[in-house]
């Protein structure tokens, strides 16, 4: 009798073990890829319940038991996890234990305008687009109640930003804003003496002009020197990227003589001094060039038009006219 009962219990145990193992280790087929969000501090009970409610795992109780037996319940890592169409409860537990949530990388390039940055973020999938309908002013005030300017142009650092999927897009803006504040303050603190900047915002404006004028490492400090030297003697900057920025939607790829003569706050041919705001998002190299112009007394530069991206720099108008004839007019 006891032997028979033992065999029955053993058989029942083996059957339960097989069922348990099947519910735990056999992948469940789902209709589509599933994104699982684990909030900071969220426990395995809530996670398993949601997965069961969404029909992603066979049985939440099996998942719970396995989590406690293996200690995974104390090792959950917050973030968003991309689960394939076929995955087992055991595989999910391993992902939660290993802590490799899915992330999104957003690339903001040096020289972009803030409007372009917003367009990239607004069109990035798997983000919560909390700010999509906000004005630039509201977005900026949400990040910093007392910004350097009410215009967000230039106040966000161009870089690659990685955040968890399904995070708020506001996190990216905050991170880019704080990163720019850090780099700008470092450039301001380490700047050369005698520069014609009243405050860090002036340096930021200058960096944006340099960023748009050249992407060549060898030219940045020389471009900076040209603009600084012109400011020091009251000469207009006469930089085309600023004119283009001031033209807005009227710019169609060409600048005409009439555009150079049409006055706007950003027309550095008709107005002296720096532009009222940055004209782009400058990178670290442009910030450093604005803070450390070369010692040369250059006042002019022109593209060499030879495919190198380099410019020819001149100390005076005669040198500049000769460079124009050589590189532009080809005479």
Automatic annotation (TrEMBL):
It catalyses: a peptidoglycan chain = a peptidoglycan chain with N-acetyl-1,6-anhydromuramyl-[peptide] at the reducing end + a peptidoglycan chain with N-acetylglucosamine at the non-reducing end. It is an enzyme of class 4 (lyase). Its EC number is 4.2.2.29. One of its GO terms (biological process) is cell wall organization. Pfam families: YceG. The record marks 213 as: Important for catalytic activity. It comes from the Bacteria. One of its GO terms (molecular function) is lytic endotransglycosylase activity. Keywords: Cell inner membrane, Cell membrane, Cell wall biogenesis/degradation, Lyase, Membrane, Transmembrane, Transmembrane helix. GO terms for cellular component: plasma membrane. Functions as a peptidoglycan terminase that cleaves nascent peptidoglycan strands endolytically to terminate their elongation. Belongs to the transglycosylase MltG family. This is Endolytic murein transglycosylase. It comes from Neisseria arctica. The lineage of its organism: Bacteria, Pseudomonadati, Pseudomonadota, Betaproteobacteria, Neisseriales.
